[in-house]
Amino acid sequence: TQSPAMDQKIFQLGLPVETVSAYLLCCGFADADTPITERKLLEVWNSTRDSLNQALDALEARDILRRIQPEAEAAIWQIRDSDAWAG
Question: pTM of the predicted model, to two decimals?
Answer without folding.
Answer: 0.91
